[in-house]
Amino acid sequence: MAKQETKKILTDYDVKRKAVKLVIVHLKKKVPDEFLGSEHLYEWISEMEKLLEKPEFVMTEYFNMKKQLNGVIERILDEEIRFKIRDSWYSLGKALDKKVKY
Predict the structure, then answer these.
(1) How far is CA 13 from the centre of its chain?
(2) Distance (Å, rounded) from C-alpha 18 to C-alpha 87?
(3) Rounded to two decimals, what is the model's pTM?
């Protein structure tokens, strides 16, 4: 008798969470470890990772984190790094718009 596999039905929130996680991974890869203002970014990343660990997905919390990232960007003096983080800010917005494909 073949073992039946049960597929988890993905919700829009599952898709959003996965997309946000990818944005965070890419953000951590693209910015250097140390730069003027890096403590603000890494504090934000830490807060975002805590939010991603929560079992529930509350959109307002994620939108607030996106607003906070914008504030972090404004505190970074290095223009090149600021542009890299701004790209991640846009990607975060797109991640929050994702929906399950049917």
Answers:
(1) 13
(2) 18
(3) 0.85
pLDDT tens across 49-84, in order? 999 999 999 999 999 999 999 999 999 999 999 999
Please name which of 59, 50, 43 lies closest in space to residue 11, comparing C-alpha atoms: 59
Distance CA 41, CA 21 (A): 15
Contacts of 68 (CB under 8 A, 6+ apart): 44, 47
Cβ atoms within 10 Å of 47's Cβ, excluding its own: 14
The token pair at 45 is 């990343």
Q: Where are the domains of the chain?
A: 12-97
DSSP conformation class of 55: S
Write the CA distances from 79 to 57, 83, 86, 87, integer angstroms: 33, 6, 10, 12
Give me the amino acid identity at 14. D
